[in-house]
TrEMBL record, chain B:
Ranges of Low complexity composition bias in the record: 17-33
Membrane-spanning ranges: 41-61, 91-116, 128-148, 168-187, 233-254, 280-302
Compartment(s) where it occurs, according to its Swiss-Prot or TrEMBL record: Cell membrane
Organism superkingdom: Bacteria
Record-given protein name: Sugar ABC transporter permease
Homology family: Belongs to the binding-protein-dependent transport system permease family.
Organism lineage string: Bacteria, Bacillati, Actinomycetota, Actinomycetes, Kitasatosporales
Membrane topology: Multi-pass membrane protein
Polar residues: compositionally biased ranges: 1-10
Length: 276, 317
């Protein structure tokens, strides 16, 4: 229905892009199964002629790089950030959509302004605040600002989703004598499931992939998250390319699993961030 | 039935306007949430985003080395910045990287997005691969490309007919090229996704009408698809601009701002000032500059897209 003639130019372009996307992924994956000397000898583009899992095992072995610990830390950060966002943003969006008070409107404008605050720009005062609060080199000190900076986009997305609920439904529930709390739990939350899954996806990715806050606000091995582990690996053992690639693959594995099993939710979620 | 249930909606709206009711008791008078529902999020956000924002402005007027307390120095940091050739260069580089990023990613992601919006099976499979860069953190992307483009062990060493001596990080022009390319590699999928969603939402009737009038694929693209994508183009371009101005990991991991200061963009310069030279005051001044630029862009975005005024996303359809 959409086009009768096949679009050769677009088809060719999409193949070029496929090559550009696929090339580094191919180099990375094949390298992880080769030893360091084989990789250096064969070059990145060669078909691998040997097979080893050493690069992965080396990374997973706690004594050498502590990836297990980093995973755990990242998981803690991600779960807490998503938890905070899910706890705070839905009531906020509900108030923004339904409340007629001027104060709520001002709050919404502040959050819109927050969209424009790049986290880099406030990293110095954040360092100051977190240090003063005694949370330096503590996962809590990473969780709180990460959650705060995920909130504007989440508020915007969820507000959009809640605005799509037709006023008739609210009226109907009001006529039945439902309180605003009941309306929230029985009407608003179930009907904004799409928006909710979007903000879960968005905040989880923000937390899992976060770099700047952990870089500036943590220091020791006990509080290291995966992105810090990768960065350290690169600065300290940059020459061990296969090992580094294995670390990259490991770092994206959880998200890749989610992608394989819940691709629709993930893609719809990301689409929701920009789409509304 | 209680008396409340018989109250006409208009009266309820007026009553709710008084606002400020705690959520629990609202059942007796009105079914609209008071502003108390917004309070926890607002307080949390204020503490961890707005307080630092005020502090960054204060710190930009102080001298602070991280050891003793901050000391007020007025506009000293700002004067220093104005005379700092690296600072001016970093602003220019930030703008250059951003403009190049928008210029490359916008047409690319529109074409890919419109293409992926088709429902053919092969497109779905290819799109699934396109989205893989989205799953990688900026850190992983940068680490990956740094190793792939390594002068000694990477692809350039093996394909010397294309890359010459292979040291892409040694010259300003190719170092900038790498940064622009890697950003495009990382972010084009996200923008493709935005356009794919938007292109699917274009009413098919428009295309049918155009075909009856004898318009070809190209004309359909320019006269129907592009105009219909207007809002998505605005959203996506603003995301690119704000993202481009604040690129950080890519520079830190791929080029460290080098060769020399040839790829030191403002966000990276600020990081260096703060956490390498411990000149937190000057770093804060750069931070204020970043906030100002990003705010102006965001205000334009709110104006253009009408986010603030919109009561429903279905309005205007």
């Amino acid at each position: 229905m959409i086009k009768r003639r096949p679009n050769y130019l677009a088809g060719f372009g999409s193949l070029v892009w496929l090559f550009l996307v696929g090339l580094p992924l191919y180099v990375m994956l094949t390298a992880t199964f080769q030893s360091r000397s084989d990789y250096a000898e064969n070059g990145p583009l060669a078909l691998p002629d040997s097979f080893t899992l050493d690069n992965y095992l080396k990374n997973l072995d706690n004594t050498e790089s502590g990836f297990g610990q980093y995973f755990l830390n990242t998981l803690i950060v991600t779960v807490c950030v998503v938890g905070i966002v899910l706890l705070l943003v839905p009531p906020l969006s509900y108030a923004i959509v339904r409340s007629r008070s001027r104060l709520t409107n001002t709050v919404f404008r502040l959050f819109l302004l927050g969209l424009a605050i790049p986290s880099q720009a406030v990293i110095v005062p954040m360092f100051y605040v977190i240090s003063q609060a005694g949370l330096y080199d503590n996962l809590v000190g990473v969780i709180l600002p990460t959650a705060a900076f995920a909130m504007p986009v989440c508020a915007l997305v969820l507000t959009g989703a809640m605005r799509d609920i037709t006023p008739d439904l609210y009226e109907a529930m009001t006529v039945d004598g439902a309180s605003s709390r009941r309306i929230f739990f029985r009407l608003v939350l179930p009907l904004s499931r799409g928006g909710l899954s979007t903000i879960v996806v968005f905040s989880a990715l923000q937390a899992w992939n976060g770099f700047l806050f952990p870089l500036v606000l943590t220091q020791s091995a006990e509080t290291k998250v995966i992105t810090m582990g990768l960065y350290d690996f690169q600065t300290e053992h940059g020459v061990d390319t296969p090992g580094l690639f294995a670390a990259v693959v490991l770092s994206m594995l959880p998200i890749l699993l989610v992608y394989l099993f819940a691709r629709r939710a993930l893609v719809q979620g990301l689409m929701g961030v920009g789409g509304k | 039935m209680t008396t409340t249930s018989l109250t006409p909606p208009a009266t309820q709206r007026r009553r709710a306007a008084s606002g400020g009711r705690p959520p629990g008791r609202s059942g007796t008078g009105t079914s609209r949430p008071g502003s108390a529902w917004a309070a926890p999020a607002a307080v949390f956000f204020a503490l961890f985003a707005l307080v630092p924002l005020v502090l960054v402005a204060a710190l930009s007027l102080s001298s602070w080395d991280g050891l003793s307390g901050p000391e007020f120095v007025g506009l000293g940091n700002w004067k220093k910045l104005l005379d700092d050739p690296v600072m001016l260069k970093s602003l220019w580089l930030s703008v250059l990287l951003t403009v190049l990023g928008v210029a490359i990613q916008t047409p690319l992601s529109i074409l890919l997005g419109v293409w992926a919006a088709g429902h053919q099976r092969n497109r779905a499979v290819l799109s699934a691969i396109y989205f893989v860069p989205l799953l990688l953190s900026a850190t992983a992307v940068s680490v990956l490309w740094r190793a792939v483009l390594d002068p000694n062990f990477g692809v350039p060493a093996q394909v010397s007919w294309l890359f010459g001596d292979g040291n892409l990080f040694g010259v300003q022009s190719s170092a900038i090229g790498v940064l622009v390319f890697v950003s495009a590699w990382q972010f084009t999928p996200l923008h493709t996704l935005i356009y794919q969603g938007a292109a699917r939402a274009v009413p098919q009737v428009l295309y049918q009408a155009a075909r009856i009038d004898g318009a070809g694929t190209v004309r359909q693209f320019f006269h129907i698809t592009l105009p219909q994508l207007r809002n998505s183009i605005i959203t996506s371009m603003i995301l690119m601009v704000v993202g481009g101005l604040t690129t950080f990991e890519t520079v830190l991991i791929l080029t460290q701002g080098g060769p020399g200061t040839d790829t030191t963009i403002s966000a990276f310069y600020m990081y260096q000032k703060a956490f390498k030279s411990y000149d937190y005051g000057t770093a804060s001044a750069i931070g204020v500059l970043l906030v100002l630029v990003a705010t102006v862009i965001s205000l334009i975005m709110v104006r253009l897209s009408g986010y603030g005024k919109m009561r429903s996303t279905m309005e205007g359809l």
